């Protein structure tokens, strides 16, 4: 298999490299006026992806039972972080994707409503989890994911994001929960 043509370097020098070099801006996607932060170049570069997961791991509390990842890009980073840290991974999905009994929540978006679901038996009282996603923007999806976890009796001990868009003030939706990001715009 051919290696990616994106910027590359060995893992030791990756620590000093700005991971922002692997985030591509796509103007007017998915609609006019939005500057989309495309993470696919970061995913395509093994060293950059590894460095990103390592930085998430450094921010993760040690007393954690599970990593919860929100569909869809939260699966990529959450599953890699779970594997690296020896924790189990639990997906939070869009409607109709989970086969067993589910618990769901509807939440408001800036342009309507959406719904997230989790297996009803995925978590119980006393479990401590870290929520992982690629992006913290307005905070609605993260807040809904946190609420799903709490409704099952578990505790969200931290939220980890690859990117935080600070101007959108999403962290205000997650009051009382430690929030860490790898990159900030």
What does this structure look like?
The protein is of the alpha/beta class and 185 residues long. It has a domain at 60-184: Rossmann fold. 26% of the residues lie in helices and 32% in strands. The chain contains 5 helices and 9 strands. The protein has helices spanning 11-14, 40-44, 46-59, 73-85, 140-151; strands spanning 24-27, 35-38, 66-70, 88-92, 102-109, 112-119, 128-136, 155-164, 179-184. The strands form 3 sheets. It has a 5-stranded parallel β-sheet, with helices on both faces. A two-stranded antiparallel sheet has the order 1-2. Helix 3 (46-59) packs across helix 4 (73-85). The radius of gyration is 16 Å and the shape is globular.
Can you list the strand order of the major beta sheet? 4-3-7-8-9
**What is the number of helices?**
5
Distance between the termini: 34 Å
Query: What's the count of strands?
Result: 9
Report the structural category.
Answer: alpha/beta
CATH architecture level-2 label of the domain at 60-184: 3-Layer(aba) Sandwich
Percent in helix: 25-40%
Q: Could you name the ranges where pLDDT drops below 50 across 5 or more consecutive residues?
A: 1-16
Rg computed from alpha carbons, rounded to a whole number of angstroms: 16 Å
Strand content: 25-35%
CATH structural class of the domain at 60-184: Alpha Beta
- Give the mean pLDDT: 91
Shape: globular
Quick one: biggest sheet? 5 strands, parallel
CATH topology grouping of the domain at 60-184:
Rossmann fold
Defining key terms:
about 180 residues, alpha/beta, Rossmann fold, two-stranded antiparallel sheet, about 30% strand
